[in-house]
Amino acid sequence: MADMAIHVVTKDCTALSDADLDEMADLSGALGNGLEIGVLSKEREAWVLITLARRDERLVGFSFCTLERIGGTPSVLIGLAAIERGPDGDELLHSVICDQLRRAVLAFPDEDVLVGTRFSWPDGFDAYAHLEDVVPRPEHKASGEERAWGRRLAKRFGIDNGNYEDRVFIARGDGMATGVLDYRRHDEAPHEPAISAYFESIEPKRGDALVVFGWAMAEYLETFLP
Fold this sequence. Notes:
Layout: E1 6-12, H1 18-31, H2 37-46, E2 49-55, E3 58-70, E4 73-83, H3 89-107, E5 113-119, E6 132-135, H4 144-156, E7 164-165, E8 170-171, E9 181-182, H5 193-197, E10 209-216, H6 218-221
Parallel strand pairs: 4-5, 4-9
Antiparallel strand pairs: 1-2, 2-3, 3-4, 5-10, 6-10, 7-8, 8-10
């Protein structure tokens, strides 16, 4: 019987083979996000780590990321990512995120870690289900410092100041493929109206995205230690 468990590994992007890129391009094509080998090769050069998720040796998810300090704050930055659609998509998503957090606790022991990314659909908030103080979030007015974090992340993601609206945390695209977290719920369960409202003016095909961050607290990260 085939092993249907999800196997996740995070490794240096320098170890990403051409065969890996081919698999990633095939998955991206199946998802319809238009990411070809050329785009993925540039991402390989731009990021430090790649997380690959496989089921029965078949690639079902990937995520570029890096662990770094931004102004002294330990951070996990999640770049271009794609998760296969299906009934276990949420499990795939959290398997990928958890492996990145496992790397984070080893790199930043006993510290709270900021986790930042971009996505163009409300379902992306599922990646933050176990994190604290997510920004933006309903019924919360972002502080000046939180808006400053949004600007820092936008800059780190290579977004020009003129294309980033810091009061609403939206990065406007230019029609080119962008490095967003591409995840969609299988059951298309509705989101609360306040979450959906963030995306009313976002055009995924144009490359628009919401810049989001939250905190993985040290106590939570300790659960990933062996």
